[in-house]
Amino acid sequence: MKKGFDNEKYLATQSRCIRERIDKFGDKLYLEFGGKLFDDYHASRVLPGFEPDSKLQLLMQLSEHAEIVIVISAVDIEKNKIRGDLGITYDTDVLRLIDSFEERGLFVGSVVITKYSGQTSADLFKQRLIKLGIKVYTLYMIPGYPNNVSHIVSDEGFGKNDYIETSRPLVVITAPGPGSGKMATCLSQLYQEHRRGIRAGYAKFETFPIWNIPLKHPINLAYEAATADLNDVNMIDPFHLEAYGFTTVNYNRDVEIFPVLKAMFEKIYGESPYQSPTDMGVNMAGNCICDDALCQEASRQEIIRRYYNAMAARKTGRSSESEVFKLELLMKQAGVTVHDRKVVDAALSYAEETGGPAAALELDNGKMILGKTSDLLGASAALLLNALKELAGVDHDLHVISPDAIHPIQQLKTKYLGSKNPRLHIDEILIALSMSATTSDAARLALEQIPNLRGCQVHTSVMLSDVDVISFRKLGIELTCEAKAEKKKEYQKV
To answer: How many domains does the chain have?
Structure first.
């Protein structure tokens, strides 16, 4: 894979920047981590060469000085909010994050439940964490937050929150997703620490938008596409422009809240350490782009993918018209259409030719692989087999899996497991392929090519079942689908 981003340079410069920010404040730094600490596949897609766990690698370099505090909103617990990329609830993700951090030798100090106002589900989750031996703290809903500064920064505001006990100079505040209350947690602790005579600082680490590239750069537009459901808008930081005389990029929520933050800093410390929201950041990603043209094209492709995802989500009632309209606007700003995604036209043309569902996959070398629905296989499963054959140099007319091996699986699905669809899904065909590999050299060669599918692009002419979507995700294949059901369902959502 071609690289447009220097990950090694990023780790070195970013680590140095964070250390400098710790030294600036002295006793303690609360570092708000925006985005994903690991599994940051959005960043790896728009910045080819960026490792999905880069932020985690950074933390591991600072592990002796750092502890992690995981924040979750009681409102999100109550609503059973789901993390879109993993399909799990936020409270489940908190437990996953704890395990993942501790497996890597990172210290998780506690979990903080924010926006608490007596939610029963939050109480139950708190008790579950306590039984697991995890420290839990509570931050309450504060009337007038965030605008009533005099009330918020008082014993009746932040002062009513639990004091989070920490033991290391760098406290990383992270969460399962946006809107969890990370910033409020940091500010509450600044107030609490100040009352105890401890001078603590605050900084923000967020990869996007990248502050030192143009506002309408495709990388920054791709960030807007990724957050279309949140109505985030990139904008010029007016405070930075006024204070320093040059242009930087931030986003609306931080710009809107900055006057309030500055007032809070002034009330706590007597002065603000920052003159702009950009000042608060410690993001060095923009300095590590080594092939801007490659990153631009990757970002344009990401915008198209986000558009297709939103179209499919609208079909199933999981997104709004406004989200789709925003993505259409971003596509225009980026100068792309769906036809700039090569697999789209290939899949649709093959579907028209065959008269049924079809799929197309673009290999790393640019070669297009096609797949169609048959009596034995779904289009996605057929596509995957064809791609593995191509990569392995196996004759496409050769059966790497005997039809006789597929029929028993079909019988199991329909006769014993109650499935109405006899065709094999991706996970089922891969199991069949692995079994065939014990006796067939061709099957073995095909199976060994699975890692080479990572990063490939796929488009299907119809929406897929969850099992195929998850399988593509596990394989590291970038999937888009037409917002069209394979079969019309009169009384159910597809």
So the answer is: 2
pLDDT for 491 equals 38
> What does the longest C-alpha to C-alpha distance in the chain come to?
78
Amino acid identity, residue 254?
A: D
Mean pLDDT by 10 residues, the chain (494 residues): 93 93 87 84 94 90 93 96 82 95 94 97 97 97 91 94 96 92 94 92 94 97 92 94 97 91 89 95 96 98 97 88 95 97 98 97 96 93 97 93 84 86 90 92 96 96 94 95 76 39
Residue 416: the pLDDT is: 86
The verdict on 80 and 194 lying in the same domain is yes
Give per-residue pLDDT as tens, 88-136.
Answer: 899 999 999 999 999 999 999 999 999 999 999 999 999 999 999 999 9
- Residues 276, 352: one domain? no
Question: Are the beta carbons of 205 and 34 closer than 8 angstroms?
Answer: yes
Is residue 15, in this structure, part of any structural domain at all?
yes
Residue 320 covered by a domain: no
What CATH number corresponds to the domain at position 407? 3.40.140.40
For residue 217, give both structure tokens. 């750069």
One DSSP character per residue, 213-264 reads S-TT-HHHHHHHHHTGGGT--EEE-HHHHHHHSS--EEEHHHHHHHHHHHHH
Tally: H helices and E strands in the chain: 20, 14
Separation between Cα atoms, residue 78 and residue 469, nearest integer Å: 27
Closest CA to 208 of 48, 71, 47: 47
Q: Report the 10 Å Cβ neighbour count for 102.
A: 12
Q: Give me the pLDDT at residue 289, please.
A: 98
For residues 283 and 367, state if they share a domain. Answer: no
333 in a domain, yes or no?
no
Distance CA 402, CA 170 (A): 58
Residue 395 belongs to domain spanning: 341-481
Q: Are residues 276 and 354 in the same domain?
A: no
Segment (H or E) for 348: helix 342-354
**88 by DSSP, 3-state: which?**
strand
